Amino acid sequence: MTICRCGSRCGAVVAGVEEVSRNVTLESTRTVVVAPPSPTSEMSGDHKKVIKGSPSQYVKLNVGGSLHYTTIGTLTKHDNMLRAMFSGRMEVLTDSEGWILIDRCGKHFGTILNYLRDEWIPIPENQRELQELLAEARYYCMSDLVEVCEGAVRQREPEKDPVCRVPLITSQREEQMLIQSTSKPVVKLLVNRHNNKYSYTSTSDDNLLKNIELFDRLSLRFSRRVLFIKDVIGSNEICLWAFYGHGKKLAEVCCTSIVYATDRKHTKVEFPEARIYEETLNVLLYENRTGPDAELMQATSTRGAVAPVVCTSDDEEERRGGYLRKLV
């Protein structure tokens, strides 16, 4: 402490000045010692902040390098992640130029904004782009757009191979129960190769297989509209198609006949494909009708010039054969 020649009182004043000077020096030293900004922060210039403003305020978005300019009102129009980002509920990352950074691919962000504006967008024709848009909609928690995209994906999925169940009946009672209990038209194929007591003609086996293959094709194609039934232990017939509508038989196509050789009889199996298709298309007329239609049943059961195919039993064929031999 310095004492002035004027006395102790003056010395006290000088001492006070020195104390103030020392305090100022210490404060100045503490200010200089403050740590400088992080080099990384200076380098990138990115920082987080909360965005909240009026709906008419425009913001700049950088989505994976794709630049967009829109209003806060558009971004907060629906309840999704973008509303949370631009309504002050969460921080967003911005660069030194004020662009708000979103770490997503910006390919479909324009479509996202258009959906927010109009609540409708044209669905991409390309399946891959549709899947990409669906992924972006899920990321931004846009449930309405997710539902639209998922519906479009389901519609464009390749149709799977049709699967159908064909009842294999074991009794006449079971057959009647199935026919009477369904509201669908019915197509039944009775096939039993072992019912024959004669030898088959050379083409019979192939034609029998063709009838079975046609039944399988028709059942796969029309299984949702027609009930297909297969009978393998039924009557004495070998190959017989029957067609039902409203529980009543409309027509039948018998595919077997007896042919006579010089010394013996043969069983011939035919494949009347056109006739089978015709009767199948006729029964489709019954699929959307709630009750019997007398005029329709008459039209599909009797076709004027088209003569019905009549199947005869083996005994009748034997009698007919004997009668023919007597005539010869």
Automatic annotation (TrEMBL):
Pfam families (alphabetical): BTB_2 (PF02214)
Alphabetical keyword list: Nucleus, Ubl conjugation pathway
One Gene Ontology term from the biological process aspect of the record: protein homooligomerization
Compartment list: Nucleus
CDD domains referenced in this protein's UniProt entry, alphabetically: BTB_POZ_KCTD10-like_BACURD
Keyword Nucleus: yes
Family membership: Belongs to the BACURD family.
Protein name per Swiss-Prot or TrEMBL: BTB domain-containing protein
Provenance organism: Petrolisthes cinctipes
Organismal lineage: Eukaryota, Metazoa, Ecdysozoa, Arthropoda, Crustacea
